Amino acid sequence: MNMKKQPRVLIVEDEPAIAELVAVNLRHNGFAPVWAEDGTAAQRELDAVLPDAILLDWMLPGQSGLALARKWRADARTKSVPILMLTARGDEPDKVQGLDAGADDYITKPFSTQELLARIRAVLRRRAPENVDDLVRIGALALDAATHRVSWQERPVKVGPTEFKLLHYLMKHPERVHTRQQLLDKVWGDHVFIEERTVDVHVKRLREALGAAGALVETVRGVGYRITAQAAPAEKAA
Ligand code: CA
Questions:
Q1: Which of 200, 205, 170, 201 is nearest to 187 (CA)?
Q2: pLDDT tens digits, residue range 91-147?
């Protein structure tokens, strides 16, 4: 018996016309939108009720969307709420900065309503799966979905939220090769509007975070990626 609750979406946007348009569309599509015009108002909202997702404008008066994303990611209360950044600029460094700050996705203005809805649904879908099961291991690499911890040779490894999901998926399906499309589909959810390049960015970041264990994540040229216990990280030189 699944009482269908309307997902609450906090819109942090200083331009009333955009906020209004987004809110109307969300409401028509079964969401419960809440509008905050800046970081202060948004924080008040978050302190009161935790939303299911945050739609965060990059350019805001006062604290920028980027600063807010960092702050909310670092806060135990808000750290698992998906954040979708709205940005007027389309260039790659900014997108990467947004993802680095802990945003789950970004959407470039102007965007279509359909695209926005698809992306919100995708972040909501993505949030749940890694909570279901617990410990997976590949050699000395361990991931505990319950505590959201990764360790290598019993030492903790810090990985970002997207890298965690990616690693979790790869570890649950070891040895086989996954194409970028498959990874977008399984890890990112609704991949229609995300470029395959995004996968490469996160794989790179994942390897960096894993250090020596990064060698477990193999690139299969022309196909995609896999995680394998066969790779010998920190191998003695032959
Ligand atoms: Ca703005």
A1: 170
A2: 666 777 777 788 888 888 888 888 899 889 888 877 755 444 578 888 889 998 878
Quote the ligand 1 centre to 54 CA distance (angstroms).
Answer: 15
First-to-last C-alpha distance (Å) of the chain: 59
Give whole-number Cα distances, 9 to 12, 49, 50, 82, 158, in Å: 10, 11, 9, 10, 28
Domains of the chain: 8-127 (3.40.50.2300), 135-237 (1.10.10.10)
Interval between CA 105 and ligand 1 midpoint (Å) = 17
CA of 15 to the centre of ligand 1 (A): 6
Ion ligand 1 neighbours, Cβ < 5 Å = 14, 57, 59
- What DSSP letter does each residue of 150-192 carry, written as one string? EEETTEEE---HHHHHHHHHHHHS-SS-EEHHHHIIIIIS--T
Cα of 68 vs centre of ligand 1, distance in Å, is 13
pLDDT digits (tens, 9 = 90+) for 16-65: 999 999 999 999 998 999 999 999 999 999 999 899 999 999 989 999 99
